[in-house]
Amino acid sequence: MNYNIMWVEKYRPKKIEDIIGHEETKTRLKGFISSNSLPHLLFAGPPGTGKTSAVIALAREIFNESSISGNLLELNASDDRGIDVIRNQVKDFARILPIDNAPFKIISLDEADALTSAAQHALRRTMEKYVNTSRFVLLCNYPSKIIEPIQSRCAFFRFSQLNSKDIFGKLSQIASLEKVDIIEEAIETIIEISNGDLRKAINILQATAAMGGRVTPKIVYQTAGSVEKKEVSKLVSYSLNQNYKQIKDTLHELLFNRGISPAEILRHLFNELFEIELSNDGKLLLIQNIAEVDYRITEGASADIQLFSLFLSLGTLN
Fold first, then answer.
1. Residues of the chain with pLDDT > 90: what percent?
2. What is the reported pLDDT for 251?
3. How far, CA to CA in Å, does 150 sit from each of 34, 96, 128?
4. Cβ–Cβ contacts within 10 Å for residue 250, how many?
5. Closest CA to 105 of 68, 80, 147
6. Which of 102, 147, 240, 283 is deepest in the core (most CB within 10 A)?
């Protein structure tokens, strides 16, 4: 077992049909390839759902293995958000003819929604001018941040969160190939923590496997720095019973002794919302309180004080 190799890269799909889920997307992409009429593409969806893997698999389908590096340009738009990168690096690559008799080059812009408005308008002109030599693939989380002239030039693909069955199958396959001793409940725990993000799930699996021995749910929670659902349920119970010392001690254990992220606690509390015995008005107030605390912590407020205040207020919502 070689832990120096990132399993996310090692088990990246080689062909379009190897991509997990997204059956309609795979059918459409295969159709573009077979008809030799690939348009500009816009891939939108949450992280870890296969957008970058789809670009690389698409390049492998179109180019020879030896010519991929010369015909595929991958950039992260959040690193170079300004107009200069479009006018220089992207434009210079786009206007040169593809190598090895390839039909065109592919320029992949990850996090394209981070591009400034001026950069997007410059990109629109570049996409239009060099369409004979290059195709653009824009990857983003929020397509609404892409200007309309670019959206109208692209075939739109929406990548939704992967379902638990698909992630379970992929993790089980990797665990088998890497000879990881892992129980089924631990895989389900990884799926719960990753929340539809396959990249995150694979990274958690590799991190837990690197510790050696059998992988259990407890080890997964420790490695991922996540909190168990039952621990947040205990906090809710302490709050409803107004057991203030238990709330304080539990939060201290989670935040300072185990280093749990406040966002993790808030996420689990939000998921617990519909199981808490509160009136509809009480649940509405709790949602508002969760949002307010999340904002305050993001702005730099003390996490332990804010969370303690939140769980104290929960006891008054009955």
1. 55
2. 93
3. 25, 22, 10
4. 18
5. 68
6. 102
Give, to the nearest 10 degrees, the angle between helix 244-252 and helix 303-314: 150
Q: Assess whether pLDDT exceeds 90 at residue 258.
A: no
| Strand 134-140 with 40-44, pairing | parallel
Residue extents of the structural domains in the chain: 7-158, 164-224, 229-314
* Record: fold of 7-158: Rossmann fold (3.40.50)
The Cα 121–Cα 224 span in angstroms is 41
- Whole-angstrom distance, CA of residue 26 vs CA of residue 140: 18
CATH of segment(s) 164-224: 1.10.8.60
pLDDT tens, residue by residue, 28-83: 999 998 888 899 999 999 999 999 999 999 999 999 888 898 999 988 866 655 66
Average confidence score pLDDT of the chain: 89
Strands 105-110 and 72-76: parallel
Q: Is 318 helix (H, G, I), strand (E, B) or coil?
A: coil
Highest-confidence segment of 1-5, 6-10, 138-142: 138-142
pLDDT in tens, 195-237: 889 999 999 999 999 888 899 998 999 888 888 888 898 999 9
DSSP symbol at 41: E
Cα distance between residue 128 and residue 122, in whole Å: 10
> Could you tell me the pTM of the whole model?
0.82
**Distance (Å, whole) CA 206 – CA 200:** 10
Name the region of 300 (left: φ>0; alpha: ψ -120 to 50; beta: rest): left
CA distances in angstroms from 163 to 20, 32, 44, 185, 198, listed in the order given: 10, 26, 17, 17, 10
The 10 Å CB-count burial string (b at 16+, else e) for 37-55 is ebebbbbbbebbbbbbbbb
- CATH 1.20.272.10 correct for 229-314: yes
Lookup: tokens for 254: 């989670």
Q: At 242, which amino acid appears?
A: Q
